[in-house]
Amino acid sequence: MNHETTPLPSSFRKFRLGAAGLLLVVALLAGCATAPAGGDAAFYAYSGAVPGTPGMLLRSEPLPPKLGLEAAARQYRILYTSTDGRTGSGQLVTSGAVFYPKGPAPTGGWPIVAWAHGTVGVADICAPSRNVRSKRDADYLDAWLRQGFAVVATDYQGLGTSRISGPHLYLDTRSEAYSVLDSVRAALGGMKDLSNRVIIVGQSQGGGAAFATAGYAPTYAPDLKVLGTVATGTPDLAHLGPSPYRPDEVNPTLAYAMYIGLTVQALDPAIRSDQFYTERALPVYAKAGSICLGPLENDIKAAGLTNANTLLPGGTPLAFRVLGRSLLYPTYKLEQPLFMGTGGADRDVSTAQQLRLAKDACAAGTRVQQHVYPGLSHSATVNASLADSIPFVRSLLAGQPVQSTCASGPD
């Protein structure tokens, strides 16, 4: 099933989500933000010819130690070519980072964890390769480095390179997938001591990006040897429930609604911001494209923005008319095994929604191993899941079968 022909679910076609539905879309895709360091802007200002082939390394430089990972021996910023996920054709410049484990490389090179990050913002200064990683993510990626994996971490299309590649299309699954796959191609083709054995890994928004990447990989990047996927806190925007916030409760996750609004306007410039947002919310929305997640959430709190005083009723159907299929997975049938880590107390992406996604993936024929962690939140599940995801990945590397929970239900 290709991206363009994926049918919209009935909730999208009939626009029954309402403002609360849009709020849930954005609440469940939150990542952990850090204050932006901004990086070295000159590195990202590529002015050379852009090759017509995706996954070409354009340049790299050592990553400043303060932006690195403790378990990395070497770490680099990279610029590379990637197919425009918005149109499905033509090459853009995308940024990211590569981290090498300590010690001598094994014969054939280090296997790769292709990391898909959570929400950080849409401005160039918010790109992860320009900033200190959150402690949660740093601990998680350090764990994979200590297991002997190199980490290749895309920033996603337009995040870090918008001045030359156009705006970051927040939550666009094809853009995310192409960015992940082409980052691995670029690292394999332009850097040393890496092995074409790839595990796709992501959390929250990145969990969705990882799922989408695994779906696109067989047709878009058959040259990559994807062994499997690890996804935690993974949403499925085809199946939404009510907002966890009361209508009159100050809601910092409105930041994600604002990032969605910016994407809608990037795709259709004729759409005005006052078609989505109230007069009270517009001054905060006006800053959403230039500040990162943490500061935007603080501005929302300071302005006392709630579901009721921020979103206009007609905004949700308008948003989904423009975004629609771009938010959906290309398929639920993944060719390689899928690990899903789910918090039993996840309020960002409900446990029920994640169980539904696993069920749909199983029904489509994906080999799913799902673990539910009782009492753990969205973020707490990330590192707790390593106790199960590392053995899962080790089995994949050894060519051993992994246990599926499709028949028995999650562990």
Fill in the keyword field for this structure:
Rossmann fold; 411 residues; globular; disordered N terminus; alpha/beta; 34% helix; 15 helices
How would you describe what is shown here?
This protein is of the alpha/beta class. Among the domains are: 3-28 and 249-326, no CATH class; 43-212, Rossmann fold, CATH 3.40.50.1820. Helix content is 34%, strand content 17%. It contains 15 helices and 9 strands. It has helices spanning 10-13, 18-27, 41-44, 135-146, 162-165, 173-190, 205-220, 254-267, 282-285, 293-303, 307-310, 315-323, 351-364, 380-384, 386-397, and strands at residues 57-62, 72-83, 91-101, 110-116, 150-154, 194-203, 226-232, 338-343, 368-373. A 9-stranded mixed β-sheet has the order 1-2-3-5-4-6-7-8-9, sandwiched between helices. A hairpin with a 7-residue loop joins strand 2 and strand 3 (91-101). Helix 2 packs across helix 8 (254-267) and helix 6 (173-190) crosses helix 7 (205-220). The chain is globular and about 60 Å long. The two termini are 30 Å apart. Mean pLDDT is 90; it is low at 1-21 and 23-36.
